[in-house]
């Protein structure tokens, strides 16, 4: 069981590394005005995210007793949020500077990586820049929302707006799959250790559950109320 736990988490870290590369590149493609390439990369992101969700079932083959037999020897990694996953959240658009002060066991390199993600453009920034390049208003959230509504209503009549609609839907799928992963992850944690504190300094399942309402692109969700 210990080998299984370590193997699955090492695989997760490899996929997180790949996701960071794909999301960063998709952002750059949007900034460069190439939404078709960004869509191709985001579809790959979706496929990887579905795989990450499916892998949780493998961890659930452990019984709680089996996991508790070796859990203490895993500290600090056990129970500590993956820094790469937090990078992915920042890069996707959910930037949380408080994370850096909340977790004091970050190494200098990890802290520098997260600070860099906080400062650089996010996937959402790339999308908004693309909207602006197409002549759509992006001055504030209200203007962006109105531009998104225009895209949704004109996509069948204007060829230069349909690709923006499709790209927005790809972003929404990325957001949705990340939410599904968080929900499955917290359910797995509660199944294994209940509400015990994380060995890496987090509060465990209660902290993870508090993150469930997180959405990368609230304006894309709010758009549904306008249509």
SSE sequence, one letter per element: HHHHHHHHHHH
What is the number of helical segments per DSSP (H or I, 4+ residues)? 11
Oligomer: single chain
**Shape verdict:** elongated
How large is the share of residues in beta strands?
Answer: under 5%
Helix content: over 70%
Radius of gyration: 19 Å
Biggest β-sheet: count, sense, barrel? none
Structural class per helix/strand content?
mainly alpha
Mean pLDDT, to the nearest integer, reads 86
Number of strands: 0
- Give the low-pLDDT segments: none
Features:
227 residues; mainly alpha; elongated
What does it look like?
With 227 residues, the chain is mainly alpha-helical. It is built from 11 helices and no strands. The chain has helices at 2-31, 35-59, 64-71, 83-92, 98-102, 108-119, 123-133, 141-154, 159-193, 205-210, 218-226. Helix 4 (83-92) packs parallel to helix 6, helix 7 packs antiparallel against helix 9 and helix 8 packs across helix 9. The termini are far apart. The model has no long low-confidence stretch (mean pLDDT 86).
Give the helices and strands, then pairings.
Blueprint: H1 2-31, H2 35-59, H3 64-71, H4 83-92, H5 98-102, H6 108-119, H7 123-133, H8 141-154, H9 159-193, H10 205-210, H11 218-226
Helix pairs in contact: 1-2, 1-4, 1-7, 2-9, 4-6, 7-9, 8-9, 8-11
């Amino acid at each position: 069981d210990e080998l299984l736990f370590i193997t699955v988490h090492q695989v997760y870290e490899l996929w997180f590394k790949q996701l960071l590369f794909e999301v960063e590149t998709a952002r750059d493609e949007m900034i460069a005005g190439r939404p078709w390439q960004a869509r191709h990369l985001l579809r790959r992101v979706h496929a990887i995210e579905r795989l990450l969700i499916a892998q949780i079932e493998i961890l659930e083959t452990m019984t709680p007793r089996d996991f508790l037999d070796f859990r203490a020897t895993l500290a600090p990694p056990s129970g500590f949020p993956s820094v790469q996953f937090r990078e992915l959240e920042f890069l996707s658009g959910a930037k949380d500077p408080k994370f850096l002060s909340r977790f004091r066991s970050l190494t200098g390199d990890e802290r520098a990586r997260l600070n860099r993600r906080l400062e650089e453009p996010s996937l959402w920034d790339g999308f908004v820049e693309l909207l602006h390049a197409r002549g759509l208003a992006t001055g504030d959230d209200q203007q962006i929302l109105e531009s998104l509504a225009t895209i949704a209503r004109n996509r069948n009549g204007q060829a230069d707006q349909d690709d923006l609609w499709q790209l927005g839907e790809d972003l929404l799928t990325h957001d949705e799959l990340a939410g599904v992963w968080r929900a499955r992850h917290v359910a797995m944690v509660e199944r294994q250790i209940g509400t015990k504190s994380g060995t890496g300094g987090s509060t465990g399942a209660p902290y993870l559950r508090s993150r469930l309402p997180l959405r990368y692109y609230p304006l894309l969700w709010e758009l549904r109320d306008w249509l």
